[in-house]
Amino acid sequence: MNWTKSMRTTVTEKLTWDNLLPSEQPIYVSSLVYSFGVFTLSSLVFTIMSGVIMAAYGPTWYQYSAAGAFFRSVHFWSVQAFFFFMTMHLVGQFFMGSWREGRAMTWVLGALSFGVSVITAFTGYLSRGDFFSQWNQVQSKDAFNGAGLDGFLNILNNGQVYGLHIAVLPLILIVLVGWHMVAVRAKGVVPPYQAAHVQKKEGEKR
């Protein structure tokens, strides 16, 4: 079997319409802890949409016009909401052991998304152009040099940092989040420990 046929067979078996767009969910999914992932995704959509609009019109627009200031505020608060809900999602899923029953890749993709989000937010903070971002830009340059990363990224190069923030890092984040969502849909949400124990007992009786 060649790799294209193997991939096509795997996708057909794992990503059925019932998995991608389920019409019913277990009762425990109505718990708040299962909603943090949706809140995180919603905040990410607002962050990306406001960021695209700001990037399209440029820094002069969002620094000096009322409409630009509005979208800059939307972008800022969307990022705050994104990190709040993502942290709640991460902590909640950690204590639920979301890597159980073959979901290790789902967990790894979520953790990688968190890491890339932090770096993306950092480059966004440095792109603000005010005194605080410039001061942190100079300070972080020493940290990057100390870590041996100065050969890959010149943190004082605003064009390089801005390009990473509006193009490279968001694309990586979108791919990781999309992959994470497909993995969630393929494996299903992880049940609480108690529900998993009951399901296991019922399976043994059959």
UniProtKB/TrEMBL annotation:
One of its GO terms (biological process) is respiratory electron transport chain. One of its GO terms (cellular component) is membrane. InterPro entries: Cyt_b/b6_N, Cytb/b6-like_sf, Di-haem_cyt_TM. Coiled coil: none annotated. Pfam families: Cytochrom_B_N_2. Residues 1-193 form the Cytochrome b/b6 N-terminal region profile domain. The keyword Transmembrane helix applies. The chain crosses the membrane at residues 32-57, 77-95, 107-126, 162-182. The keyword Glycosyltransferase does not apply. Keywords: Membrane, Transmembrane, Transmembrane helix. GO terms for molecular function: electron transfer activity; oxidoreductase activity. Signal peptide: none annotated. This is Menaquinol-cytochrome c reductase cytochrome b subunit. The gene is qcrB_2.
